[in-house]
Amino acid sequence: MPATTDPALLERLRNLFDARDRADMAPTIAALLDVLAQHPTDPHVLYEVGGAYDTAGEEETAAGYYERALAAGLDGDALRRCLVQYGSTLRNLGRFDESLAALQRGRQLFPESDSLRVWHALSLHAAGRSDGAVAELMELAADRIPSPDLQRYEIAVRGNAEYLRSLDASR
What we know:
The protein is mostly helical. It has helices at about 5-20, 25-40, 45-55, 60-70, 75-90, 95-110, 115-125, 130-145, 150, 155-170. Helix content is about 75%, strand content about 0%.
């Protein structure tokens, strides 16, 4: 069963996140490590520490915190965000199969998440699977762009996406 994080702690994490300076993450990381010292197994704290290291460009460190957050029972929207960020971090580390697995897990848990679909496509591309990446983005466009111009060609867009996906699957 997922761990329940105290609402006051979640608010504290939100305030630290809102106050961060993406160009200088050191103060945010230090503040989050202080929170982590008080709550060493809280999945939301672990996730936020991972995210801070990720933003600072320290992907190896971030990956470890994301893994700990997932193992600690992160759930809800934080789980969705963690899987996006973890998958992206793994891609940046060249761990493409793991990246795709994390993002696919997220897609199964959160099938309506556009961000998971986009990052999955990016990881497919990084893994040398451009046909699958383009197919993913074409399907996303057909699903989410409410343009009469695009909707006119929806069957063709989806057919081409299916064709590209079959090329990707055959490799």
